[in-house]
Structure formats: structure tokens, C-alpha cells
Design brief:
three-stranded parallel sheet; 11 strands; TIM Barrel
Amino acid sequence: MTTEAPTVDVHAHVLLPQVDELVTGLPGHARARELDARRNGPDALAVSGAMIRDRITALTDPAVRLARMDAQGVDVQLVSPSPSHYHYWTDAPMAEKVWRLANEATADHCTQAPGRLRGLGLVPLQHPEQAVEALDHALGQGLAGVEISSHAPGRELSDPAYEPLWARAAETGAIVFLHPFGCTLDERLDRWYLSNTVGQPTENAVALSHLIFSGVLDRHPGLKIVAAHGGGYLPTHIGRSDHAWRARPDASAGCAEPPSSYLRRLYFDSLVHDPHVLRALVETAGADRVLLGSDFPFDMGSDDPVGALHAAGLPAGDIAAIRSHNAADLLHLTSA
């Protein structure tokens, strides 16, 4: 790090070919790819394939990553596995192989530049009984926490089976990065890349609502959950949730306070692609709860996350908090 206040990007990905090699050829892998194809549609798959091929070195080569970071003015990245590595379709033995390999490979990638790269591992949401072990393994590799999707097949994040995971994450101070992969609206979003542009923020909003309304954040106030994509639609539409909480006993049965109050217990990245929405997110959640995020190096990310932050016209103190201080505190960074 070259500045007293390092610029920290908390939303950046690494592609792990060894994880793909591990699952390729398994019957469940073929079914998962078929589901992904149905959800995205042929046009999106064709564009995404070319995009990944064009950016493969940035996703896998630490030297290329560091050069791109320098060009962006980013000092530190929090690197998480590509969400395509979740593989929540795997059985228990294969799931353990996936998260162990993903954790170790991500840690190895980050050790190539220990002052500039921090990492996140994976936990198998489809096998909650393994989740605490997987989190501990990630932390044991020197990773800062884990990345999870918005749900697993047949389980929402409000499922009681995840209580040990939330408790352990709160106890250890681990970061839990909430990044959806795939939207259950399926073929309704299979054109014009709606699977991502509409699907991702929808999944973010649903997942966060499960955490809020079920009381997970009441029971585990120390949880450090970082929501990708600015938390999706929820922060800018939280008034409807508050109204339901006040108007309906079924909506207020699980959480102790109005839903909007919990936004100040969560963290959000800044990747909302609109300065007006970023200002609204800061107003709703607080500048101390927003972190710089780029979705490096994917095409739905920002090639200039610092510039996008400045475009929102926020006060200088808020910009400094979002660009640096909030993430530095979460990651326990020290200046060089």
C-alpha cells in the first residue's frame, strides 16, 4: 500500500480452473449447466463466453490483476471466487472437496501479493452441517471470511439450519459476502440479460429480507454481512417493508425493529451504476456502511470504481469512508 488511506475494492473475483476441473463430467454438473442456460438464454451465454475469454488473465494472473488495480487507483482488493464456483448441486463429499480447493486456491492467489490482495472462501449452503467447518477452514487459510449466494436449493438464508454459521461468523468476526448466482425467476428473464440486470438485484433484496424479517440480525448482531450490488432493490424500496412491518402482524413476527433499521447493521458495496442511487444508498444505510466495489473484472462491473464514487457528489468525508476507511476497518488493514 502506498497511501495512508488505501483505496479498497471489496467486490473483485478470481476464477479457479481447478475447481471447474474437479466437477466437470459429473451428472449434476451437466444439469446445473442446463439450468444456467435456461435462465440466461443463448444470447447471454454467447456474449458471456466471449467476455470471460477476453478477461481470463485478469481473473487468474495476479500480475495482470495488480496492473489493472494500479490503473484504477485501487490499492487493495478483497478477492472472492467467481460465483460460478458455488456448485450448490454437489453431494456432501464433493461439496467438501469444492470448498477446500476453492479456499486453498483463493488463498494461494492472494499470497502472490499479500499486501494488496485479501481473500474470501466458500461454504456449502446446500449442506449446512459443513458450513462452520468450511468457514473455519477459510479463516485458517488466512482468508477474511466467505462468499455465499442468496439461497441454496430448497433453503433460504432464514433457514434455522444456518444458525451455527451465523453464530460462528459473528464470533470470529468473519466477513460474509452476499453475492447471488442465478435467479429463480428462470426463463422469465432469459432475454436481454435480464437474468443479471433484474435477477441479481432481485435476489439481493430477497436474501436480505430473509435475514432481516427472520430475526437473524437480532440474534447475531455481530454479523458482518456485505451485500453486493448495493443490496439490490431493497435499500431504495425499504419503505414498503417498514409499512408491512407496522401494518401486519405476520410481517412483524420475526424481527424486533422496523426493517429499515437493520440496513445500518449491514454493509453494501457501491456498485449501483447510478450516482442518484448511490446517494440514496448512503442516505438510507449511512456512509459508514457503504464500501467501494467494482465487480472486477466482469463487464457488469465498473472499470473506474473511484470515479463512479466521486460522480455521486458526496461530501469528502463520505467519499473517504467509502473509498477506504470502512473496508480498512473491516479488514484490519494498516497503512504501509
